[in-house]
Amino acid sequence: MTYCVGIKISDGLVFLSDTRTNAGVDNIARFRKMFTWSIRGKRAIAIMASGNLSITQGVITRLNQDIQRSQTDDVECILNADTMFRVAQLVGKKMKGIQQSHSEDLEAHGEASSATLIVGGQRLGGRHRLFQIYSAGNFIEATPDTPYFQIGEHKYGKPILDRVLTINTPLKDAIKAAMVSMDSTLRSNLSVGMPLDIAAVRGDTLAFTHHRRIDVDDSNFLNITNSWSLALRDAFQTLPELKGN
Question: What is the mean pLDDT of the chain?
Answer without folding.
Answer: 94
